[in-house]
Sequence to fold (498 residues):
Amino acid sequence: MSPRLPTTNSDYYRDPDDDQLRLECGVFGVFGIPDAAGVVALGLHALQHRGQEACGIATFDGQRFATERHMGQVGEAFSGPDTVRRLPGSYAIGHTRYATAGGSFIRNVQPMFADLEAGGVAIAHNGNLTNFLYLREKLVADGSIFQSTSDSEVILHLIARSRKALMIDRFIDAVSQIEGGYALVALTNKKLIGMRDPLGIRPLVLGDLDGRYVLASETCALEMIGARFVRDIEHGEMVVISDSGIESMRPFPAEKARPCVFEYVYFARPDSVVNGRSVYGVRKRMGHRLAAETGVQADVVVPVPDSGVPAAIGYAEASGVPFDLGIIRSHYAGRTFIQPTQGIRELGVRMKHSPNRAVLDGKRVVLIDDSIVRGTTSRKIVRLVREAGAKEVHLRSASPPIRWPDFYGIDMPDRDKLLAANQSIEEMTKFLEVDSLGFLSVEGLYEALEAGPRDPACPQFTDHYFTGDYPTRLLDREIAEGRNELAEQRQLSLLASA
Fold:
C-alpha cells in the first residue's frame, strides 16, 4: 500500500468510482524578469493539466518575499493585473498541484516558504519522496515542528537543519537525503535553483526569455510565455541561476537515466517535448503499434477524449479504419462533485462524455483509451457507446496493462484495485462488457518511444506500473510492511498464549 499519512483526504472530492489517474504537479520558475508573478501565472496556466486542485506563487522583490497559495485553479487565483501588485518582484516560482502525499488542505499547497538564519527560501516540488515518512518521523523525533502533511516540507526542514555555511551547500545536503522521483525549483534572495532526481523520473526543462532563464516542468509552458527551449535539465543535475548567469552542478554519482514513461502515455501535454521526444509523435506511434498488435475488423476508430486522441489517430492510420469523434467531451464539467446516490453517480460520466449517435449507430467500434486502471469509468463509457447504437465495441488500451502501483508522484490505486493485476484478459473483457479487449505490449511501447528493445537489466524508462521493476528502493513501504509483519507476529503470539 502506498505510504501516505492517514490525514490525506484527496479522495473526498471525487466520485468513488472514478478511476482516472491523477497527475503529479507542475513547477515553474523565472529569474530577473519584470512582473515575474504574471509570467509565472501564465506558465502555470500551461501546466494546469498536471494538477487542478491548488496552486501558488512565491516572489522576491530584492528586499522581501511574498507568497500566495490557493485552493482551485490558476485562473481563479491569479488572474488580472492585481496579481503583480500583490506579488511584486522579478524573481518567482510557482506550483500547480494535485495531492499525492498529504491531503487536500491549504497548508499543503506550494510553494512552501521558510525564514532561515541564512535567509528566506521558497520551494516547489513535483513528484513523491519514497522515504518521506521515514525522514518526517526522524525529524519530529529530533524536535522539528511540521505545519503540513506534505513531503515537500521535509526538504525545507532538512535545509534548515543542515550545518553547511552556504545555502547551496545546505540545499545539496538536504537533497542528498531524499529518495524517489522529483523535480524541484527553489528561490532564495539571490538565486533560482532547479534540481532533477538522479534517475530523471520527473521532468524539468530550461528555457530562455529575452536572455533570462526559465525553469518549467514541460516545454508547453515555455511556449505559453514566448520563451525559447534551451535543454532538458539532466538527471541528477542541479542548476543555479543568479545575476552572474547559470551554473550546472552534479552533486551525486552518475546513474543511468530512467524517465517516467507515463509522461508519454498520459501526463504530458501532447504539444510538449519530453526528454527530446515529441509527446504527440510518441502517442501516434503507440496507436500504430496497437493496430499492428491488436487489429480487429471494424467500421470506425473512436478515441476516449482527450488523452486517447493521438493514439486513435495513429491506430486509424495504421489500420485503414476511419477515425471519427464518437464521444464528445465537455470541458466545463469541472471537478466531479460528491454524488448522493449510486444511481446519480452512474450518470456522472455523462457530465464529461456524451456519445455521438450519428457516428456510433450500427457501427463496429474500436474504442481507444490511453490506459485502463480500475476499469469502472471504461465500463461506463462502453455502456454509453452501446446505448448510442454501436453494434460491436472493441476496447483497446494504448499502454500495457497496469499491474503495479506507483510511488513517485502518480495517484494510482493500490494493487488490489488495479483491474489488470487481478483479472485475466477474458475476465476483464467480461467485466468491461466489450466484444474484445487489447493492450499495447511493453515491447510495442518501447518501439513507439524509439528507444530500442527494453533492457531487462537496466530499463531505459521507469515502467514499474507495467513490469513491477521499481527503479529505487521504497523505504517507507518496506518499513510499513515490516511493521505490519511485526504486528501480525505479536497478534499470533498473543493468540497462542491465550
In short: Residues 1-16, 335-340 have pLDDT under 50 and may be disordered. Residues 344 and 386 are 20 Å apart (CA to CA). The radius of gyration is 23 Å. The first strand starts at residue 25 and ends at 31.
